[in-house]
Amino acid sequence: MSLDAHVVVRRADFVLDLALAVEPGETVALVGSNGAGKTTFLHAVAGLVRLDDGHVRLGGRVLSDVRAGTHVPPERRRCGLVFQQHLVFPHLSALENVAFGLRAAGVRRREARRRAAGWLDRLGVADCGRRCGAQLSGGQAQRVALARSLACAPDVVLLDEPFAALDLASRPAVRDLLRSEVLDGTRPTVLVTHDPQDARELADRVVSLSFGSPCRGTSAAGADAAP
Amino acid sequence: MSMVETGVARSPGPRPVGTARRPRERTSVGLALLAGTGLVFVVAPFVALLLGAPWGRLLGLAVSGPALEALWLSLRTATAATALCLVLGVPLAWALARTTLPCRGVVRSVVTVPMVLPPVVGGVALLALLGRRGLVGRHLDAWLGVSIPFTTGAVVIAEAFVAMPFLVLSVDGALRSADVSLERAAATLGASRWYVFRRVTLPLVGPGVVAGAVLCFARAMGEFGATVTFAGSLPGVTRTMPLAIYLAMESDPELAVALSLVLIVTSVAVLVALRSRWLRPSGGPS
Amino acid sequence: MAVGVALGALVLGITACSGPDGHERSEDGGELTVLAAASLTDVFAEIGDAFEAANPGVTVSFSFAGSAVLAQQVIAGAPADVLATASTATMDTAAAMTGPPEVFTTNTLEIAVPAGNPGGVTGLADLADPGLTVALCAEEVPCGAAAAAVLAGAGVTAAPDTYEQDVRAVLTKVILGEVDAGLVYRTDVASAGDDVEGIDVAGADVVRNDYWISVVTGTDEPDLARAFVEYVLAEPGQAVLAAAGFGSPESAGVDG
Predict the structure, then answer these.
(1) Do B189 and A46 touch (CB under 8 A)?
(2) Which CATH superfamily, name and number, covers B60-114+164-223+236-278?
(3) Pair A168, A223 in one domain
(4) Which range has the worst mean pLDDT, B71-85, B91-105, C125-139?
(5) Which of A78, A112, B61, B286 is placed for a possible disulfide with A107 were both Cys, Cβ 3.0 to 4.6 Å?
(6) Is A83 inside a domain boundary?
(7) Of the candidates A100, A127, A153, which is a domain's last residue?
(8) How does DSSP assign chain C, residue by residue?
(9) Which residues of chain B make contact with C169, given a CB cutoff of 8 A?
(10) pLDDT given at position A221
């Protein structure tokens, strides 16, 4: 399953126009300064932002196609978006947070909790399971948010600055986690970061975005041309 | 309103950094005086009522059959009206706060009309719609043989009509100040709009909903004008406490005072119970 | 109705202000506040108008409400000069604060039905029909006490769907067609015009409502207040009352 996106979003002050193709198992890092349109791109792929032009295809499915008037709502896209502010539900326990997507998909409570506990364990936060979302530390919340997205078995993983909310000490651990649990070679991954080192270490390819357009010299164009 | 703010404070996400707390102002004597006067303004009439109460006969009057009958009817109808407002008003508030409904501003104003309308006019309006010769009521009467006025159901409808704006405004405000991004996050996890509403939106604005329900219930308990106009006044069927109190004024003012005290005590007890049950600071319903 | 009264009061106020300086009883005019039963709304407005015309410079303002409420207001020291109630009991309530009261008119009950009489009501016995929607005054208010007496006299156990707060509320529900029948005063049926039909009640004369009027103790205008009471008792006032369907005080009940 591969991601093929050409996202055009027009705003009053800038235009995002980025074409990106990501192969199964491939990780593309999207780098660039604040306001370059990185987050907008992820949200457009996830269906939270409507395209003004272009398309988003995931495997055989058309998620967005402006010409054809297609816009699949976010809840039916199977895009695992991990937000920069992690957005863990403050009123639910860590376990219920991770079980949320499974429950929404109709998985029975007991089974959903069992699977959620497994994900918390894999991400090293099993001991936080009963704690309320609002009581988690930044690092814990980030892992719970990752587990929550991965538990839904998404077709694409979209990571928005996964290290931004973390203190320096916990970054290496989360980076290792990402490598072992997220970038597992089965699906396309887009990683937004403003840290070139993160990009180099985790990504197969780096695309640099500036004022809504890919910079010359990055490999975005090449990837676009790939089959 | 403070309850709504609690809900906001509990939601995560970026807090505005620029709006740091202003240096605490020195207590203003003038402000304190006005605040004290405000408190006296609200409390003094009740104190006067208490002082003038027929304490000797109070218990006998308060627990008399007709008084209990009216109180029980009031509690039942106000609860039913609050439930009706919750079922219809929360989705309406959601539509106002979360969708791009055309002319939302107009709809929002229209929803508040029962608040500014004299309740008697509200009762007349309900008769015009649901009365035996009303727009809809005449068909109900002709086709189904159903007549709404002068029934307990009519009391519930009248109370809900008058109390609905309190719930809608409260929930609308809570929704508009709540963090939308949590709902968006829920959507990316595959949750339908209804599921998001149930599991994320409602719990987050829970305090706002409870605040609205409390206002709604209090307004329904005190409803008089619309009820007497639309539902009439028959003991045990439509004569709620406020109607019984007003009628008692005609014949036995001491009884009216006693009934008023019973109504006040009951309403306050219910509201306090609601607050302590649903608005505990830590840990919401899971 | 309320708007009409308010407008009427406004017009009265204006004519009084623009009138020439008074003579006769009140050299320098004067202001009179009359508390009167709700059923007197139309007639007293008219009588007040005539009284002002007869006494240039004098302003009469009215406060119409249920008799019991008015009696309570007088006891509580409301700044009133004249009290007119629709029952003996309510005038008794205010006795401590009034001079000796006099009966100035009477009223009897009648069945009011919406135009066309959709319920097919013919007499008191129909008020016991559970299939009909019936409104009565609550027994706590004068019209309700009278209705209970009339029904008891006729041996009818009514099955009302509502006991209204005052006679006007019963009349309104009849006008709106929400009830098939209501027991109201003869004068109410007359005032409602074509919207309402009246059906005579056999034996209604036995239970007669006496209307009492009295000067309020401690009034600032005792002479003017006395003049108004006499005006109501005399020919001009009685003519207005009779035209509206009220009975003459001579027919007042033995025990009031």
Answers:
(1) no
(2) MetI-like (1.10.3720.10)
(3) yes
(4) B91-105
(5) A112
(6) no
(7) A153
(8) -HHHHHHHHHHHHHHHHHSPPP-TT-TT-EEEEEEEEGGGHHHHHHHHHHHHHHSTTEEEEEEEE-HHHHHHHHHTT-S-SEEEESSHHHHHHTGGGB---EEEEEE-EEEEEETT-TT---SGGGGG-TTS-EEEE-TTSHHHHHHHHHHHHHT-----SEEESSHHHHHHHHHTTSSSEEEEEHHHHHHTGGGEEEE--TTGGGS-EEEEEEEBTT-S-HHHHHHHHHHHHSHHHHHHHHHTTPBPGGG--S--
(9) 228-229
(10) 37
